[in-house]
Amino acid sequence: MSEYTVTMLMSATRTRVLIVDGTDEILRAHLPAMRQVGSPRAAATLLEGLALWLDRPARVVVSADELDATSLLGLTDDFGVPRRSVYYSVEVVERHARRPGRRLGGVGDFRELRQLSLIGRGAR
Question: Which of 48, 56, 83, 92 to pair with 70, CA 20 to 30 A apart?
Fold first, then answer.
Protein backbone atom coordinates (compact mmCIF):
# COMPACT_ATOMS: atom_id res chain seq x y z
CA MET A 1 0.00 0.00 0.00
CA SER A 2 1.53 3.33 -1.07
CA GLU A 3 1.54 6.47 1.03
CA TYR A 4 -0.66 9.30 -0.01
CA THR A 5 0.42 12.92 0.33
CA VAL A 6 -1.78 15.96 0.70
CA THR A 7 -0.04 19.19 -0.31
CA MET A 8 -1.74 22.43 0.72
CA LEU A 9 -0.61 25.87 -0.45
CA MET A 10 -2.41 28.62 1.43
CA SER A 11 -2.47 32.21 0.21
CA ALA A 12 -4.52 35.33 0.86
CA THR A 13 -6.78 34.57 -2.12
CA ARG A 14 -7.19 30.79 -2.11
CA THR A 15 -6.05 27.44 -0.79
CA ARG A 16 -4.86 24.91 -3.35
CA VAL A 17 -4.85 21.21 -2.50
CA LEU A 18 -3.16 18.37 -4.37
CA ILE A 19 -3.48 14.75 -3.29
CA VAL A 20 -1.21 12.07 -4.70
CA ASP A 21 -1.23 8.34 -4.07
CA GLY A 22 2.35 7.25 -4.63
CA THR A 23 3.05 8.97 -7.95
CA ASP A 24 -0.58 9.20 -9.15
CA GLU A 25 -2.61 12.38 -8.68
CA ILE A 26 -6.01 11.54 -7.27
CA LEU A 27 -7.44 14.98 -6.43
CA ARG A 28 -6.87 18.65 -7.20
CA ALA A 29 -8.91 21.37 -5.52
CA HIS A 30 -9.18 25.14 -5.17
CA LEU A 31 -10.74 26.09 -1.85
CA PRO A 32 -11.55 29.50 -0.34
CA ALA A 33 -8.75 31.49 1.28
CA MET A 34 -7.84 30.58 4.84
CA ARG A 35 -9.36 33.80 6.20
CA GLN A 36 -12.73 32.70 4.76
CA VAL A 37 -12.74 29.33 6.53
CA GLY A 38 -15.68 29.18 8.92
CA SER A 39 -14.34 26.67 11.45
CA PRO A 40 -10.91 26.38 13.05
CA ARG A 41 -11.26 22.60 12.64
CA ALA A 42 -11.99 22.70 8.90
CA ALA A 43 -8.54 21.54 7.73
CA ALA A 44 -8.27 18.82 10.39
CA THR A 45 -11.76 17.57 9.58
CA LEU A 46 -10.97 17.49 5.86
CA LEU A 47 -7.79 15.49 6.49
CA GLU A 48 -9.51 13.10 8.89
CA GLY A 49 -12.26 12.48 6.32
CA LEU A 50 -9.69 11.78 3.60
CA ALA A 51 -7.86 9.34 5.85
CA LEU A 52 -11.10 7.50 6.57
CA TRP A 53 -12.07 7.50 2.87
CA LEU A 54 -8.66 6.17 1.78
CA ASP A 55 -8.31 3.88 4.81
CA ARG A 56 -4.84 5.10 5.81
CA PRO A 57 -3.20 8.16 7.36
CA ALA A 58 -1.92 10.99 5.17
CA ARG A 59 1.38 12.78 4.97
CA VAL A 60 0.44 16.46 4.82
CA VAL A 61 2.80 19.09 3.40
CA VAL A 62 1.69 22.65 4.12
CA SER A 63 3.01 25.97 2.90
CA ALA A 64 1.45 29.34 3.65
CA ASP A 65 2.09 32.96 2.73
CA GLU A 66 1.44 34.04 6.31
CA LEU A 67 3.50 32.44 9.07
CA ASP A 68 0.55 31.90 11.41
CA ALA A 69 -1.86 30.65 8.74
CA THR A 70 -1.31 26.98 9.49
CA SER A 71 -1.88 27.48 13.21
CA LEU A 72 -5.13 29.28 12.41
CA LEU A 73 -6.33 26.16 10.63
CA GLY A 74 -5.17 23.94 13.47
CA LEU A 75 -2.37 22.21 11.56
CA THR A 76 0.33 23.55 13.89
CA ASP A 77 0.31 24.84 17.43
CA ASP A 78 0.92 28.50 18.30
CA PHE A 79 4.69 27.93 18.17
CA GLY A 80 4.58 26.48 14.65
CA VAL A 81 5.11 22.87 15.75
CA PRO A 82 3.25 20.58 13.32
CA ARG A 83 0.36 18.59 14.73
CA ARG A 84 0.09 14.82 14.45
CA SER A 85 -2.88 12.55 14.77
CA VAL A 86 -3.79 8.99 13.90
CA TYR A 87 -5.19 10.42 10.65
CA TYR A 88 -2.29 12.57 9.43
CA SER A 89 1.15 14.00 10.11
CA VAL A 90 1.99 17.57 9.08
CA GLU A 91 5.21 18.99 7.64
CA VAL A 92 5.51 22.75 7.20
CA VAL A 93 7.59 23.82 4.19
CA GLU A 94 8.66 27.34 3.27
CA ARG A 95 7.13 28.36 -0.02
CA HIS A 96 10.44 29.53 -1.44
CA ALA A 97 12.19 26.30 -0.47
CA ARG A 98 10.36 24.40 -3.21
CA ARG A 99 11.97 26.24 -6.11
CA PRO A 100 14.90 24.43 -7.67
CA GLY A 101 17.84 26.80 -7.93
CA ARG A 102 17.88 30.55 -7.63
CA ARG A 103 16.23 32.74 -10.26
CA LEU A 104 16.95 36.36 -10.93
CA GLY A 105 14.06 38.77 -10.99
CA GLY A 106 13.41 42.16 -12.50
CA VAL A 107 14.69 41.58 -16.04
CA GLY A 108 11.67 40.05 -17.74
CA ASP A 109 10.13 36.65 -18.34
CA PHE A 110 12.56 33.86 -19.21
CA ARG A 111 10.18 30.89 -19.23
CA GLU A 112 10.53 30.43 -22.98
CA LEU A 113 14.31 30.38 -22.71
CA ARG A 114 14.24 27.84 -19.87
CA GLN A 115 11.97 25.68 -22.03
CA LEU A 116 14.34 26.00 -24.98
CA SER A 117 17.29 25.02 -22.81
CA LEU A 118 15.46 21.81 -21.85
CA ILE A 119 14.77 21.03 -25.52
CA GLY A 120 18.40 21.75 -26.38
CA ARG A 121 19.59 19.14 -23.89
CA GLY A 122 17.66 16.43 -25.72
CA ALA A 123 19.12 17.35 -29.13
CA ARG A 124 22.66 16.36 -28.24
Answer: 56
